[in-house]
Amino acid sequence: AYPRAAPAAQRLVEVSKALDLHPFALANVIEFESGWNPKARNPVSGATGLLQWTRSSAVGLGTTTAAIAAMSAARQLDLVQRYLTNVKAARGGLDSIKRLTMAIFYPKAMSWPSWWMFPRTVRKANPGFAVVADYVELAQDRARLPWSSAI
């Protein structure tokens, strides 16, 4: 379903297993965030890589967005594992599509109701995502792998 993911498929399975996620769920959200392009960059926020890490997220992982953009998808999956392990420890499980997608897009929103509005800076950098449900629903609509039972 995602040809660009093929070089990193084995690492995706390993990371998913370590995070207690189905690989389809993680593959879908990475596809939605970056199209599996490890060099993807948001022109407004500068968020970079498979998960579209912001500058502050990159620093929190001990790196930079420039260094992330230079990594392969398989190498970035090491960061995905570390990042999601940290988010999971700080904010709870990744046991629903909403919680997984928000862990990646805006971790503070993992426990917010679906109708909750994102801060203005988030809306400005990500036009079309006014409330939590906007992101979750579009991610679900664009998924090419079944993930309703994959979490």
Total helix count? 8
- Which segments are poorly predicted (pLDDT under 50) over 5 or more consecutive residues? none
Secondary-structure class: mainly alpha
Distance between the termini: 18 Å
Assign an overall shape: globular
- Most strands sheet: none
Instruction: Estimate percent helicity.
Output: 40-55%
Task: Kindly provide the radius of gyration, computed on alpha-carbon positions and rounded to a whole number of angstroms.
Answer: 14 Å
Mean pLDDT: 94
Estimate what percentage of residues fall within beta strands: under 5%
**How many beta strands in the DSSP annotation?**
0
Protein model, in words:
With 151 residues, the chain is mostly helical. The chain is built from eight helices and no strands. α1 packs parallel to α5, α2 (23-34) crosses α6 and α6 (97-105) packs across α8 (132-142). The longest helix has 19 residues, at 73-91. The two termini are 18 Å apart.
What's this, in brief?
With 151 residues, the chain is mainly α.
